[in-house]
Amino acid sequence: MKTAFDAKPGTVLDIDWDLFFVNKWEFHRAGRWATTIKMRLKNISNWWSTDRVFSGEDKLNDVILERTTFEFLYESSWMFVFMNQETYEQIELNDDDIGDMKFYLVEWSTIDIQQYEWKFVWIILPTYVKLKIAEVDLTSSWNYMKDAVTDTWLKIGVPWNIEVWDEIVVNTSTGDFMEKVK
pTM here? Predict the structure, then answer.
């Protein structure tokens, strides 16, 4: 059990027999010391977002997720195949499960997958990934940057000195170019 005040972003809650991922958390103090917590919750079963307001002392059921390391094997027909590194069990996730995280998946890389009662919940990406540039747009109108596309189809702004087949480091939480791999 957690109070609404303790349910920070990244927490998974069981509310009315549905699992919700806390995306955003805001604390508000009203008159007479009353506190309210505004949360943006993402329903894990259908990925719809909803905004809810709780009293700071409302009791919520938190959920402990199982976290397992998997290796990304390949993508085929919008299905992404991962292998558990301990049991060699393979799981397939579709494009809806992965979302925009697909742009940061590199074959043979390891990631953590969170599950609840053997059901997929979330992927935890590394903070930084190395991606190769597949194409660059030389007609970009940015002053010191140009548009590029990586081999995973991520569209990104890169400095002018980056060329096709260069390897770059990308921040997975922001999608920003960090540096060129030497």
Answer: 0.72
